[in-house]
Amino acid sequence: MAETEPTPTAFRRRRWYHRRDVRFVSVVAAALILFHSHGFITGPAKISGALAEALSSDKARLNIQVETLFAPEAFHMSVYQELGSMRGSEGTVTTLHRVKPAAIYLLSRKYWVARIDLAAR
Length: 121
Fold this sequence. Notes:
Layout: H1 20-42, H2 49-56, E1 62-68, H3 74-83, E2 85-90, E3 93-99, H4 101-108, E4 113-118
């Protein structure tokens, strides 16, 4: 009895990881993970030493100055107003009053924030 070769078929079974939609979702997920991890890694370096001391002193709310990479626009100002009371903007520096410490850490993770410091009273 001679062994017969399998007949070629038009249908070829593909593995789940070779599917185009799985690869697309994987690339998008990897990009989102990289984007958010960049914020978590670089966020603490954007907080000044004086502000870090004030954050460790367990104050309920702080007055801060946020320096951005460019002049703030309507979107940025709406984010500021959600986090605290916006008291003015001069160039790329915006002053916020009565900001909670958790909001300061959240703000430091934004890619458009260059530096966060204590505001002069």
